[in-house]
Amino acid sequence: MFAIIQGLGLAALLSAISMMLVQRLDTSISPLIFAILLGLVLGNVLPGLAGSKWQPGLAFCKKRLLRIGVAFYGINITLQHIAAVGVGALLVDAVMLLSTLALAYWLGRRWLGLDAPTSLLVGAGSAICGAAAILATEPVVRAKSQQTAVAVGTVVIFGTVAMFAYPLLYPLIGFSPEAMGIYTGATIHEVAQVVAAGSAMGNDVAQTAVITKLTRVMMLAPVLLVLGSWLSRRSGVEAVRAPQPWFAYGFIAVVVFNSLVQLPPVWVGTIQQLDSWALTMAMAALGLGTHIGALRSVGWKPLLLAAILFLHLVMTGLIVTHVATSWL
């Protein structure tokens, strides 16, 4: 228990510094961005900060606290917001998810000569929800731990690039806040990265981005069920049951509750503040656990596959989002 408290305290300290920087600099940059930057710098300059002494608490932040924070992010959203996003977000999600996963398998197997588990893990991480999708896909494709680590490394690299690049792209591509939110939520890898990038572009973009992203996350379970069934038919081995993304269902529950029950404004404000702390602490922990040296072991073929998928998400996603938001 004490070890968890130590890691939580370190993440909380970086979160407090991040929020102080936002206030002192009077900037619209999200504290989540500052938190992951501080974590990246400290985690690589002082690698012992992510060692065994702090690891239990940091792992709690990266897994449980992150998912709790995402679920309670629903306090910012109502069913009216979701209705406003409409069928366009669902369409973009579906097109980008299926095309990215299919492209990953085809390129990985046919062009790069990668094994099926690595190709599918990199594809799942890019197409659905980053490391969470990779970990959920691992038992379905019967991957080895090294294959999983490689896939997670690619998500860390390109998801982080996307998180910083999208706020820079926003004023250049001429999207409305709603369209940018759909584009962000449908094409950035991790939930936390979507939250950070969306927050850096404003509340309107962030709300739409998270709704779109959580819609994409909820596609994880049916996609894995279909994938497992397909692989079992090819190999003749019984499929492994896919885990459920419960934090996404929690997000929906909070949204429904927020739409039906009018809480006192002070309660809503308190929940929003606590949720912001949870997400910022999760980003600090993610930064502390990301070591540049460890990413060198990823290998060039999975890295090249992830790079191609990243370009596909950015460029094809831009076109699909433009078409979907213009026609629907």
Can you tell me about this structure?
The N and C termini lie far apart (51 Å). The chain has 14 helices and no strands. 50% of the residues are buried. With 328 residues, the chain is mainly α. The protein is globular and about 55 Å long. Helix 9 runs antiparallel to helix 10 (203-217). It has helices at 2-25, 31-45, 55-72, 79-85, 87-111, 116-141, 145-173, 177-187, 191-200, 203-217, 220-235, 246-260, 265-288, 300-327.
Protein traits:
328 residues, 14 helices, mainly alpha, single chain, globular
Order of helices and strands: HHHHHHHHHHHHHH
Number of strands: 0
What is the 3D form? globular
Instruction: Report the uncertain regions.
Output: none
Helix content: over 70%
Q: In DSSP terms, counting alpha (H) and pi (I) runs of 4 or more, how many helices?
A: 14
SSE class = mainly alpha
Give a brief outline of the structure.
This protein has 14 helices and no strands.
List the helices and strands and how they pair.
Layout: H1 2-25, H2 31-45, H3 55-72, H4 79-85, H5 87-111, H6 116-141, H7 145-173, H8 177-187, H9 191-200, H10 203-217, H11 220-235, H12 246-260, H13 265-288, H14 300-327
Helix pairs in contact: 1-2, 1-3, 1-13, 2-13, 3-12, 3-13, 5-6, 5-8, 5-10, 5-14, 6-7, 6-11, 6-14, 7-9, 7-14, 8-10, 8-14, 9-10
